[in-house]
Amino acid sequence: MNIIISNSSDKPIYEQIATQIKKIIISGEVSPGDALPSMRFLAKELRISVITTKRAYSDLERDGFIETVAGKGSFVANQNLSFIREEQLRLAEEFLQKAVDTAKNSDITCKELKDMLEILYGGEEA
Amino acid sequence: MNIIISNSSDKPIYEQIATQIKKIIISGEVSPGDALPSMRFLAKELRISVITTKRAYSDLERDGFIETVAGKGSFVANQNLSFIREEQLRLAEEFLQKAVDTAKNSDITCKELKDMLEILYGGEEA
DNA sequence: CATAGTGTATATATACTATATATACACTAT
DNA sequence: ATAGTGTATATATAGTATATATACACTATG
C-alpha cells in the first residue's frame, strides 16, 4: 500500500490519506479482510501524528470502507454496498439542500424543483 | 419596507436582511428605481452596525438586485426580474444535477430524491 | 461654503471551525 | 511481560465568518 501526501496540496493530510485508500479499495487492489497498514506504522512512515492517521481511518470506517478493531488493527470491510450507498445518499441530500435554499429565496416552488428533478433524472441513462 | 432579524436564527444578520430584501424585490412589492432604506437608517432601526447593513447591500448589489451610489443611496436595480429568477433556476438546476449524478451512481431512485426534496423543502422556514 | 444626509475604508474584536499534535491510556496476541 | 495494536483527553495553531467602531468621502441643498 503506497500512500503519498503532499504539503502543497490544498487538501488536509487526513483527507489525502482517506481518498487514496478509498481508491485502492474501490479498484479492487485489496480484498475484504485484508489488513491495512497500522495507524502507527503509517504515521511513522509519513512522519505525521498517529492522530492524523486515526482521523483518516475513522472517516473511512464511518463511510463503511474499513473496519477497525482496538488492539488488532484495521481491515478492508466487506464491500457492504449499503454503507457506501448511505454515504452517497448523504451527499445527494447535501446538493438537494442547496437547491432548496436557492429555490426558497426566489419563490421557486417545490413542485417546480420536483419537475426539474424528474427531467434531469429521466433524461440520459448514465 | 419591513425587515425583521432574529437572534435565534442560525443565519447571520446580513444574510437575513439580504434574503428578505430579495424576496420583496422578486415579489414585485417594489419597483426598479425605488429607494431602499439607507444603510444608516436600517442599521439604527435594527440596532446593528452600518457595516452589517452594508454587507447585506453589497451582496444584493453583487447579485444584481440593487444599485448603490455613494452619497445618494441604494435603489432597486433596473432589472429584468424574470432574468434573475432564471438565474436562480439555473443555479438550482445545477445542484439538482449534481444530486442526480450522485444518485445514479448508487442506484438511488428518482422517487427517493423527490421524497427527500419534499422533506427538505417543507422543513424549516428560516 | 455648511450641513446633514448618503455610502465607504480601515483596522479590530470575537467566536467558531478545521487541522494537527503530544501524551497517556486500553486492548490483543504471543 | 512485552510489543504490537487502536483510543481518549487536552491542547495548539491557523483560518474563516461575523459583527463592530471610527474616521473618511461623496451628494444634495440651504
Could you walk me through the main structural features you see in this protein, from its secondary elements to its overall organization?
- 2 copies of one chain form a homodimer.
- Chain A is mainly alpha-helical and 126 residues long.
- Chain A folds into 2 domains: 13-76, Arc Repressor Mutant, subunit A, CATH 1.10.10.10; 81-122.
- The first copy, chain A, is built from 5 helices and 2 strands; from the N terminus they run H-H-H-E-E-H-H.
- Chain A has helices at 13-27, 39-46, 50-62, 81-104, 110-122; strands spanning 66-69, 73-76.
- The first copy, chain A, has a two-stranded antiparallel sheet with strand order 1-2.
- In chain A, a hairpin with a 3-residue loop joins strand 1 and strand 2.
- In chain A, helix 2 (39-46) crosses helix 3 (50-62).
- The model of chain A has no long low-confidence stretch (mean pLDDT 88).
- At the A-B interface, helix 4 and helix 5 of A face helix 1, helix 4 and helix 5 of B.
- The structure holds a DNA duplex (30 and 30 nucleotides).
- Chains A, B: It comes from Acetobacterium tundrae.
